[in-house]
Amino acid sequence: MSMILKNAKTIVKGIIAVLLILCLIDADYGFYQAMRTLISFGFAFLTYRYYQTGDKTNAIIYFCLLIVFQPLLKIGLGRGIWIVADIAVAVFLVYQIFKEVHTKNTTIAKGIEASTKEPPSTVKKQGNLRINFPDKVKH
C-alpha cells in the first residue's frame, strides 16, 4: 500500500481544514457552493473510511458533518454562524491530525524501543560477565 493511501484520512482532513479556512474570505455564492461540494466529498470519504475500519464513533461524527455541509439542501444559518462553524470544524480537524500524528510517532517509538531490548529470558548475568543464550541451539 502506498504512503498516500496509508495517510489518506490525515491528508483529506488537512485539505478540508484549508477549504474551511478559505470559506472565511468574502466571495460570491458560487464559491461557497463549490467549497461545500468539495468539503462534502471529503466528509463522505472520511465517513466511509472510518466505518470501513470499524471506528463507528468517528464515522457518525463525519456523517453528521457531511449532513451539515452538504450542498443540496441549504441550511440557512447566517454568515456569522457559518464563520464560527467553519473555524470550529477546522480546529477540530487540525486537532485530529495532530492527535493521529502523535499516536503514530508514539507507536513507532515504542516499536523501536521494543526491538532494541533483549528478551530477559535469554540473558543471564554472573558477576560482570554477561552470557547470551540463543533460543534454539543447533547440533
Describe this structure in words.
The structure is a single chain. With 139 residues, this protein is mainly α. The chain has one domain (3-132). The chain contains five helices and two strands, in the order H-H-H-H-H-E-E. The chain has helices at residues 3-6, 8-22, 29-52, 56-69, 79-116, and strands at residues 123-126, 129-132. The protein has a two-stranded antiparallel ribbon. 12% of the residues are buried. The model has no long low-confidence stretch (mean pLDDT 80).
User: How many structural domains can be distinguished in the coordinates?
Assistant: 1
The neighbouring-strand order within the major sheet is 1-2
Beta-strand residue fraction: 5-15%
Unreliable parts:
none
Q: Which class of secondary structure composition applies to the elements? A: mainly alpha
How many helices does DSSP assign? 5
Structure summary, number of beta strands:
2
Order of helices and strands: HHHHHEE
Terminus-to-terminus distance: 41 Å
The biggest sheet, with number of strands, parallel, antiparallel or mixed sense and barrel status, is: 2 strands, antiparallel
How does the overall form come out from the CA principal axes?
A: elongated
